[in-house]
Design brief:
globular, two-stranded antiparallel sheet, mainly alpha, 2 domains, 6 helices
């Protein structure tokens, strides 16, 4: 599910894919929705949050009715003053491909993974997390059967 804030209102887009946060594919669906929504509005000339900014906005549990307007106003000022950068687009692509654990069971060996990532072995990290994700999906499937 994706959210858009426009003229004092939050719009919920693509509710049909709405799932609980602990669903095995919740992060995959969210990332896809964020990509689709930001791409749509960007194509129509709207200055939008980066995918990472929108992801952080959606998942930040500290944002509530008392501070959402100030948070978004600060972000809108940042967006308005932001030059168009190719590095921003690169960051977007990295975010699209990044593994985001849904729970601590998916964090197998954080120290090993950080060392691999720092050494440039992102493929080894990705493969380890894909195996973990497959196991998590199998467990979720077993619970539903």
């Amino acid at each position: 599910m994706a959210h858009r804030y426009y003229r004092g209102h939050i719009y919920i887009i693509d509710v049909s894919q709405s799932v609980e946060h602990d669903h095995p594919n919740a992060i995959v669906f969210l990332r896809s929705d964020i990509s689709n929504v930001t791409s749509f509005f960007r194509k129509h000339g709207v200055s939008v949050m980066t995918m990472l900014e929108l992801f952080n906005f959606i998942t930040d549990v500290t944002i509530d009715d008392s501070n959402v307007d100030a948070y978004l106003e600060k972000l809108q000022n940042s967006i308005a003053s932001r030059p168009a950068l190719t590095s921003e687009q690169q960051t977007e692509e990295v975010f699209k491909q990044s593994f985001i654990p849904r729970n601590l069971e998916e964090v197998v060996d954080i120290e090993r993974d950080m060392k691999r990532g720092q050494a440039g072995d992102t493929e080894g990290v990705r493969a380890a997390h894909e195996r973990t994700n497959e196991r998590a999906n199998e467990r979720a499937s077993e619970r539903t059967n």
